[in-house]
Amino acid sequence: MSNVYDVLAERGYIEQATHEEELRELLEKEKVSFYIGFDPTADSLHVGHFIQVMVMMHMQKAGHRPIAIIGGGTAMVGDPSGKTDMRKMLTKEQIEQNARSFKEQFSRFIEFGEDKALMINNADWLLELNYVDFLREIGRHFSVNRMLTAECFKTRLEKGLSFLEFNYMLMQSYDFLELYRRYNCKLQMGGSDQWSNILGGVELIRRVEGASAYGLTFKLLTTSEGKKMGKTESGAIWLDAEKTSPYEFYQYWRNIDDKDVEKCLALLTFLPMEEVRKLGSLEGAEINKAKETLAFEVTKLVHGEKEAVNAQQAAKALFSSGSEGGSIPFTEMARSQFTTGIDILTLLQEAGLTSSKSEGRRLVQQGGIYLDENRVEDFNLIITERDFEDGKLMIRKGKKVYHQIRLI
RNA sequence: GGAGGGGUUCCCGAGUUGGCCAAAGGGGGCAGACUGUAAAUCUGCUGGCUAUGCCUUCACAGGUUCGAAUCCUGUCCCCUCCA
């Protein structure tokens, strides 16, 4: 069980790999530098990236060296894989800013240092490429016929694919070559949508350097229905506490589908596999224990133990007795606003629970709003200081969304 | 550059003999019931508001008309075929 490859396989990360056996041996024998690319298209990593971060952690633990590549150069082109539309192009400044946020977040999970792990922006070499040289050196190794048969371009061939995007594969392949030359990086990993791009790099290194390089892809984190996980109606689940509070983060995992629990425990926590299997095999209401463990462990990894405990306590308190907990989302409002009273619809909006008064009105009419566990019957209700206890008022929307108003 | 087709509410997508269109249907989402903070199922809702009425929406800007998503003119954008 000491081989990381086996660990990764057992936990269910691996989708496919080039030369499985060779790669396994390589990981057994030597310290391998490997890379995973990240597109800096947002200012924070989200849950979808986290699985890749987990892999880097596993690999680093096993003594290998992760190289996180920030696609500063490639982001300026946009990866067409799996997309139906052309991506928005980002400005250089945005990309740089995002790259900084990424690095900060990576440091929470991976130890950086010359020998430990690196983070590199591929803009370093991509931006100064000379077009003609690139074509002569790299372009000649790619067959358009072959590329067109690649899965990642198929959907785009129907809808239209610009030449700019068509080049993405070459750029990513070139990244791998460059990393091989500079850091002796022999392995590229990525989501399964990256398979063709990774293969491109592996082949390029073989042709240009005559050396062996390897590729490995992970399963994309999807729900049992095949949807991408980590997306909610209100957007992605971010690793940044500012964008997704630890409480919400915890709740996301707590509310996960029964069928996804075991998979997530294996992929997103470091719990031993025996325990993962044990938890995953719980039946009926019992499986809630597994969900609690999952939520706690993942929150702990991402936000630290303290936040995880807070989130867990808040959740338990709310869902078992309805009393308040420590870290539920809240809004602070001036006491003076409540001397004359404020109507419920406005209050809901202030708390961010509804986006319009009409929406609030509907919610109340349908019986979806509660104040301290009492259903609100009338949408003309006026809230005053007297409704508060200890300067706090708990509003609940639906079954699970809690929000507290605090007087200041 | 030439020929043709099209841009509708969160998304897909009806609607173009002008009024009955805040706009069918589906998806998604939200809420209710049932439950285990799960899934499935059933029900309701899904532009805004100082709300039985009023206001703003059908690419954009004008025009015709008592009245336009629907007709006319111009502009922008997208797609397909030809070069």
Can you describe this structure?
It is built from 18 helices and 15 strands. With 408 residues, it is an alpha/beta fold. It has three domains: 4-218, Rossmann fold, CATH 3.40.50; 231-321, Orthogonal Bundle (Tyrosyl-Transfer RNA Synthetase), CATH 1.10.240; 330-407, Structural Genomics Hypothetical 15.5 Kd Protein In mrcA-pckA Intergenic Region, Chain A (Roll), CATH 3.10.290. Helix 12 (246-254) packs antiparallel against helix 15 (287-303) and helix 17 packs across helix 18. It starts with a helix and ends with a strand. The protein binds one RNA strand of 83 nucleotides through helix 15, helix 16 and helix 18.
Ordered list of secondary-structure elements with their pairings:
Blueprint: H1 4-11, E1 14-17, H2 20-29, E2 33-38, H3 47-61, E3 65-70, H4 92-106, E4 118-121, H5 123-126, H6 131-137, H7 144-149, H8 151-159, H9 163-166, H10 168-183, E5 185-191, H11 195-209, E6 214-218, E7 231-232, E8 235-236, H12 246-254, H13 261-268, H14 273-280, H15 287-303, H16 305-320, E9 330-333, E10 342-343, H17 344-350, H18 357-365, E11 369-371, E12 374-375, E13 382-383, E14 392-397, E15 401-407
Parallel strand pairs: 2-3, 2-5, 3-4, 5-6, 9-15
Antiparallel strand pairs: 1-6, 7-8, 10-13, 11-12, 11-14, 14-15
The structure holds one RNA strand of 83 nucleotides.
Q: Which terms would index this structure?
A:
about 400 residues; alpha/beta; Rossmann fold; Tyrosyl-Transfer RNA Synthetase; Structural Genomics Hypothetical 15.5 Kd Protein In mrcA-pckA Intergenic Region, Chain A; five-stranded mixed sheet; about 45% helix; RNA-binding
